[in-house]
Design goal:
- This protein is mainly α.
- The protein folds into two domains: 65 residues, no CATH class; 261 residues, no CATH class.
- Helix content is 64%, strand content 2%.
- It has a two-stranded antiparallel sheet with strand order 1-2.
- Strand 1 and strand 2 form a beta hairpin.
- The longest helix is centred in the first third of the chain and has 26 residues.
């Protein structure tokens, strides 16, 4: 196909992704920050504390609600016990310190605090969607064949659409989606390019650590990488692979430093959790929870990720197969966690699904041209 036709295809798919963005922005412009969701109020309270106290906002002690911000927000959404803050939702009693604190890590509140009070959610989502669009366009323009252009365009449109549904279900998902796209692209660069790029490995680790500040379960997004780097070291036993694993682990810790700091203030220790109840119970596989996932859109995304992983394991280049191993390990650990968690939501597995799909997409697109041309031969080769 001529370069002019390829360029035209890329322009068409870029316009398609941009139209989905425009539709999203139109829908977002009509959102109401008082939609009656308890989690929303707590994220907005985090933002209010940072705007009011600066770095002192890491302390989420409910006693600091002396300006009645939380009470007024709860009253606004019709919460029955709005004037009894000891009953405030998504707050946890810390017995050692005898204080009630927000259970969530501080990252989402920090980002919301960048925007003016009362007009925080729409700018956060529009900004996050623009960032996702950027990675979608990067995928389209990285493609080398008409089929890969269409693949990049279709997934790009899907990724942008998901910023409305189900990302709207939790404010923490919007920034998480940016991290998933960025980490997926960098992972593909790492494993389809020069393997021993310590700086790139550290950057991936930092991004995945950063994601923990938005949602604590995002910590599991780094699990497949850790297992892959550990296995690589155990097989080779070289100084280089040791440094790669060490750099990755250190970068994850640096990225999640705000959460560790917040835990130290609110829970009394960096390693203590501010979560309680069903969120802090031991794993327990439930057929009912698994059925909920099977009937949800998350299952479709996970199925796509599993299918694409199997494809790259069979037909990808050497680097793409390594990438698929990282994704497979990541999916295994994350699915084991969420399928054994006693609560189901329409967004719990969205981060691992999107990280996997972005990684697999860029892994396919960034393969050397010869690897793409040889793929049919590898698929046809007998076992």
């Amino acid at each position: 196909m001529s370069s002019i036709t390829m360029k035209s295809l890329k322009i068409v798919w870029s316009l398609a992704c941009t139209l989905v963005l425009a539709s999203n922005v139109w829908s977002m412009s009509r959102w109401n920050e008082a939609r009656g969701v308890y989690d929303d109020v707590c994220y907005l309270r985090q933002a209010h504390l940072f705007q009011r106290f600066g770095s002192g906002g890491f302390d989420t002690n409910i006693a600091r609600d002396d300006d009645h911000y939380l009470a007024s927000k709860l009253k606004e959404i019709g919460y029955p016990g709005w004037n009894h803050l000891a009953q405030a939702p998504c707050h946890t009693l810390m017995p050692a310190a005898n204080k009630l604190v927000i259970q969530y890590p501080p990252g989402t509140g920090l980002l919301l605090a960048l925007f003016p009070e009362g007009h925080q959610v729409i700018p956060l989502y529009v900004t996050a969607t623009l960032a996702v669009l950027g990675f979608a366009l990067l995928g389209v323009w990285s493609a080398r064949t008409p089929r890969s252009v269409a693949l990049g365009g279709l997934f790009g449109c899907l990724a942008v659409y998901l910023m409305i549904n189900p990302a709207k279900a939790s404010y923490s998902i919007a920034p998480t989606m940016i991290v998933c796209a960025a980490a997926g692209y960098l992972t593909a660069r790492w494993l389809t390019g020069p393997r021993h790029d310590v700086a790139l490995i550290a950057l991936i680790g930092f991004l995945l650590g950063l994601a923990v500040n938005f949602r604590l379960p995002n910590l599991f997004l780094a699990s497949g990488y850790g297992l892959f780097l550990l296995a690589t070291f155990l097989v080779s036993r070289t100084y280089q692979t040791f440094i790669e694993g060490l750099s990755f682990g250190a970068a994850v810790l640096i990225g999640m430093a705000p959460t560790l700091f917040a835990n130290a203030i609110n829970a009394g220790s960096p390693l203590a959790t501010t979560y309680s109840g069903a969120d802090a119970v031991s794993p327990d596989f439930s057929l009912a929870i698994i059925k909920d996932y099977l009937a949800d859109m998350q299952f479709v995304l996970l199925l796509l990720a599993l299918g694409a992983t199997a494809y790259l394991l069979r037909a990808g280049s050497h680097g793409a197969r390594s990438l698929a191993l990282v994704v497979a390990a990541n999916l295994l650990v994350n699915l084991a966690f969420f399928m054994s968690h006693p609560i189901f939501t329409p967004y719990y597995t969205i981060p691992i699904a999107m990280l996997s799909l972005w990684t697999l997409l860029f892994g396919y697109l960034l393969q050397p041209p010869q690897a793409v041309e040889d793929a049919p031969a590898r698929r046809a080769r007998p076992a």
